[in-house]
Amino acid sequence: xxxxxKQQDLILKNLSSILASVRRQSLVQLNELPVSMVSNEQxxxxxxxxxxDSEDDVRKLANRYLENxxxxxxxxxxxxARPQAAPATKPDTSSEQNPSLVLPPVGELPPLGELxxxxxxxxxxxxxxxxxxxxxxxxxxxxxxxxxxxxxxxSVIIEAPPLNEFVDSSIPYIENLKSIPDRLNHIQFLMKSRxxxxxxxxxxxxxxxxxxxxxTALQALLTAKDPRVPPQALAMLSLPGLSSQRRFLMLKIIMxxxxxxxIEPLECVLLAEKDVxxxxxxxxxxxxxxxxxxxxxxxxxxSDPDPRVRANTVEVIExxxxxxxxxxxxNLLRDPENRVKVNAAKFLVKCGHPE
Length: 355
Known about the structure:
Layout: H1 5-14, H2 20-32, H3 40-50, H4 56-68, H5 94-97, E1 148-150, E2 157-159, H6 180-193, H7 198-205, H8 211-224, H9 229-237, H10 244-256, H11 263-272, H12 276-290, H13 295-302, H14 307-319, H15 326-331, H16 338-350
Antiparallel strand pairs: 1-2
């Protein structure tokens, strides 16, 4: 299916994202856009500009596409092509003294990779405490914050609604916090004092390269219980390369913080989701919000390859008393998995099914 004009615009916008993983994925999507939407001349222009990117992987990918188009310039891609200005002051050598504590730029994600398998589905008792997550930037001025995240497949593009949060200029810039302990202490300060803009800072830290920092920030956001958070967490959940621990905390935010969530992006993330725990949680939220209007999506989940998703979809349909999937649930009486059959039978008994 050909991308829409809006998707094309978002792909081009994401070429300048602060996240290297998003910039890299946007190049992949740009390369796949038909010539009727973006001409080869325009693609060459974008790919050539990407040769100046700060990330080696992004530069190499852009160069590969240019080579395929017969337009690759001869240049060394091992370092950014932009000229390096001589430092005006003596360089900081603290990183040489303790290299393990020096952090890369905030907002970069770890490389894409397979998430570890999760065998057991989380129970409701494991999903505790309401939440808060927001997307934003560090600034001393009030600003509407809009961040766009792209899933690795390119099938879901979600734009988070603006946070509209004034960031107190007295809060230290995250970029100036060079060590892991400094950033962890900053998170504690933000949660204790809650200055204006603390959610913006915590959200930026929630996508930090270091897992300890990201998980601590997400846990802090989980306790803030801000109703603006669920749409932001949903947009973050569509980021590529996140660990299963981060994704589970984001799911908890979406499930437990009562706030408005648009059905359309929720449906997109749900259908694209591969992790059983996350998908089973998202289907609960979707069924609660969409009810009968979400019938087709719920039917799709009832035929999911994983029996745990099928079983949990039946449970949530029963909880919300949705009666538009009875035929499909009846077919699950012949499901090879016992839990799916039992859940289907329980639901059909309540509905007065003749069998």
